[in-house]
Amino acid sequence: MSSETESSNTIAGESSGRVVDRLRPVTGPIDRALSPLANGYNRFLGPYFGEMNGLQFALLFVSLISLATAPFWSNYIIVQTFTVASIWAIFAMSWDIQSGYTGYISFGHSALSGAAAYTTAMLLYNVGDFPFMVTAPVSVFVTLVVGLAIALPSLRLSGPYFSLITFVAVLIFYRLIRPFSDQTGGETGLQSVEVFTYDPVALYYYMFVPMVVIAVVLVFIARSNIGLVFTAIRENESAVEAAGLNATKFKLWSFVISAIPMGIGGVLLAHYYGGVDPYTFVVVDNSIEMIAMAVVGGMSSILGPLAGAFLFLSLDRIILTELPTRLRWIIIWVAVLVVLVFARDGVFRKLWHGLDRLGGDRE
Fold first, then answer.
1. What's the DSSP call for residue 276?
2. pTM of the model
3. Is 363 a domain residue?
4. How many angstroms separate the CA atoms of 360 and 363, rounded?
5. Which end of the chain is more exposed for a tag (fewer CB within 10 A), N or C?
6. TM spans, by residue (predicted)?
């Protein structure tokens, strides 16, 4: 079986190489025309966020401008979808900086976003009418505490044992909601959170701007020495320990760095829906969808999970929306399986590397 797989990969690689050779006479001049812009970026920001060629710069620039101006060229459905996708992109990127980079696969991240959302709703319902500037930082802090509570007993484990503990954490969170229904609202949840605004354009930017800021911060961290240690832990944790670095401390840092944006995303989601309930905010299905978005876009790349979230939500709410719900989800999960089998690096990472091959030499 392995020889057949290697043979298939070799054939696919040769076919890909022939396609690149045929396209390069077309893409080469475009890349050279855009190189001055890319080189300017590489000179000032490349050391912090990664270098790129002209084609990659064009893809990133066009994508950012397209998303930033989405309310002006799209319709209501697309704006609504991109609003929710912005929140899920925060979740997918947050999961990626912890699990994608360190290789410790967490199924417990929905507990983090749920902790933030429930803290906001419970403060407003049980304590008082606090302003956003009070509930948001408190909710993110509680998320950080919950993240540490999950991380401390689990990070000395690895593989399925680590994943199992994070999975159990979500189940415990979910089961605790019903006994404390006077405070949490039980199965029906709490509708105590004020929606930011009912203007769909303004609401989009309430979610889009934090997503961009978080993406920039996480890419910066991923490209720093901290990100390199996270990657080294995934590749060879024993070598990290042998180099004198405390791998457990860095894994704990990965949970802390991941928990903060998860908390921000949870708060934003609570203010998007105007309330919380266990099925929307806590169930383990949410964690699975975060992982799927990261896998589709490309794990350990930050921007790949961001793109994966927009693709995932676009399939569900725009492209396949006319299909019955069950059939729609079957198609989406089959698509995720296809990516896992034939494009394990993710769709957008493959596109990014393809543009690198199609472009010319950097300055």
1. B
2. 0.92
3. no
4. 9
5. N
6. 52-70, 107-125, 131-152, 159-177, 203-222, 252-273, 293-315, 327-343
